[in-house]
Specification:
Blueprint (H helix, E strand, L loop, with lengths): L1 H22 L7 E2 L8 E3 L4 E6 L5 E6 L2 E6 L5 E6 L5 E10 L3 E17 L1 H4 L8 H7 L6 E4 L17 E3 L10 H14 L3 E5 L13 H6 L4 H38 L27 H7 L9 E5 L8 H19 L6 E4 L11 H9 L8 E4 L15 H15 L12 E7 L2 E6 L8 E3 L4 E7 L5 E9 L4 E5 L8 E4 L9 E3 L9 E2 L6
Parallel strand pairs: 2-8, 8-11, 8-12, 9-11, 12-13, 13-14
Antiparallel strand pairs: 1-3, 3-6, 4-5, 4-7, 7-8, 9-10, 15-16, 16-20, 17-22, 18-19, 18-21, 19-20, 21-23
Helix pairs in contact: 4-10, 8-9
Length: 521
């Protein structure tokens, strides 16, 4: 009897406990944003926002490097604090976030943080570029370089959080880093002697519209066609998906019948393309998809600036890109809320033949963004490969970008571009090209004799090969052509795969493509 009574008491206690659990509020642990992970790099000399989620109304404190900031999570459970500007620190420290629970992130450094974005040429990894075995083997000495590569996501709406971990440079990890990002960071680290973090959000084949937020898309008329196209695809998607499902079902039936009859069946399976079903949830070409999935979750992480390599995906859309690229730069600066931070990009490299002028016009369209403050571009037309759209000399491209940052962002007195054209004037049966600041440091070196890469056109606007002869102590070039006795326009390196012959005398930096005309082709 006593035993039965004891069993009943235990059963009642367990029942009450279960009811108590059901009625008690669900506890949400304090969770920092995914960027605040082990081995992160925080931006020096700027206030450092730290944010995350917790219970609504929960008190949250963040402690780092002797500083503590506290706040209360809002009604949706979101919280944010701002740590004061911190000096560079290469000694790993801990970031401690406390609420009802405690989260400790270790190995945190303070230095320079750059966002590396764009398409496949920024995405291309160290292990896919020239000299990769040397770079990977030698990276053990550069643990102050870190890369965060967020897990790739396309999204129709802005995501509030992301996922991914910071990787420390070393033989086991560096091979998967962005090659341009790594060599950019390595050059900065060697000169600045502070930790460098790269946030790599690049995505192959992406178009510029995929990196722009919805508000900018609607505000900039250049994107109106993108919005219209996306709206039509979205409306058509149910029918596209239904047809695809029907095609797949028929394919499976036909395959089963062929197997039963023991006859060959070579018809490829219908399916989504590599970019996803048009208009569908996996369509990577929809406007804002990569902004929503890869950029928005980063806001408002403190960073120094952005490096960018994109344009191949929009090649041919010159008038569009002239508006779209500056709109992207301006919008990112606004959204990160850190002023007009530096935004440096790679001008499209050489690829293909020496006939097409598709990319020169695209390079010119990229240059429209130079009208914005704190912008700059690295010339790479001398580093390409005719049959590889992904040039493998990424070390040099990364270093050229770093030159620009070191000169313009960090104040080092170094050369960051090739000689610039000062004046183009008609002389005799040709054109005289004069360059700025004539001195040995900036004088021209012709890597061919006579100088290659020039073309002249007459009244018929047909460009013919021309030759350039150095003059004025190697600070000017006279361009002539026996095929064009009365030229009215001159161009230099105005081809998809030009043969440039002009470089800076001491640094080997190429003279940028240029033209005297404003013709549409």
């Amino acid at each position: 009897m006593r035993e039965k009574k004891l069993m009943n008491m235990m059963r009642n206690n367990l029942f009450c406990l279960a009811l108590g659990c059901l009625s008690a509020p669900v506890r949400a642990d304090v969770v920092p944003a995914f960027l605040f992970n082990d081995n992160a790099v925080l931006q020096r000399d700027k206030p450092v926002p730290v944010w995350g989620t917790a219970d609504a109304g929960e008190r949250v404190s963040v402690a780092f490097a002797g500083h503590t900031a506290t706040t209360t999570a809002d009604a949706t459970g979101k919280w944010r604090v701002d740590l004061p500007a911190l000096p560079a620190n290469a000694t790993p420290s801990s970031l401690v976030i406390k609420g009802k629970n405690t989260v400790t992130r270790t190995g945190i450094l303070v230095g320079e943080v750059w966002l590396a974005s764009g398409q496949s040429n920024m995405q291309q990894m160290v292990k896919e570029s020239f000299d990769s075995s040397l770079d990977i083997a030698g990276s053990a000495r550069f643990s102050m370089i870190r890369e965060l590569r967020p897990d790739k996501k396309t999204s129709y709406t802005p995501l509030s959080t992301g996922s991914g971990t910071w990787k420390v440079a070393g033989p086991e990890t560096t091979g998967d880093f962005s090659a341009i990002g790594y060599h950019y960071a390595l050059t900065l680290y060697k000169v600045l002697n502070v930790p460098v973090g790269i946030i790599n959000t690049s995505q192959g084949a992406s178009k510029i519209r995929t990196w722009v937020d919805d508000a900018t898309l609607k505000a900039e008329p250049a994107f109106s066609g993108d919005i219209e196209e996306a709206t039509k695809k979205l409306a058509a998607y149910p029918a596209v998906k239904a047809k695809l499902d029907a095609d797949v079902a028929k394919w499976e039936t036909d395959k089963a019948a062929a197997l039963a009859a023991k006859t060959p069946f070579t018809t490829p399976r219908p399916g989504y393309g590599w970019a996803g079903t048009p208009g569908g949830p996996d369509d990577m070409f929809r406007p804002s998809t990569f902004y929503n999935g890869l950029i928005h979750p980063l806001l408002p992480y403190a960073l120094r600036g952005v490096i960018w390599y994109q344009g191949e995906g929009d090649a041919g859309l010159y008038a569009y890109y002239v508006k779209a690229f500056p709109a992207l730069i301006t919008s990112w600066r606004t959204l990160f809320g850190q002023g007009d931070f530096p935004f440096y990009w790679v001008q499209l490299s050489s690829y293909g033949d020496n006939v097409s002028t598709l990319w020169p016009f695209m390079r010119e369209a990229q240059n429209a963004a130079l009208s914005l403050p704190n912008t700059g571009h690295a010339i790479s037309m001398d580093l390409g490969q005719p049959k590889n759209i992904h040039p493998q000399r990424k070390q040099e491209i990364g270093r050229r970008l770093a030159r620009i940052a070191l000169a313009r962002t960090y104040g080092f007195k170094i050369r960051d571009s090739g000689p610039e054209v000062e004046k183009i004037e008609r002389e005799g049966a040709g054109f005289r090209i004069r360059f700025k600041s004539p001195n040995r440091w900036q004088a021209l070196t012709n890597f061919s004799d006579p100088v290659t890469g020039f073309e002249l056109a007459g009244e018929d606007r047909v460009f013919k090969p021309a030759i350039g002869v150095m003059g004025d102590n190697n600070t000017s070039v006279l361009v002539t052509s026996t095929q064009v006795p009365e030229p009215i326009a001159v161009r230099y390196a105005w081809r998809v795969f030009p043969l440039p012959g002009l470089f800076d005398h001491d640094e080997g930096l190429p003279v940028e493509q240029f033209r005297s005309d404003n013709w549409a082709r």
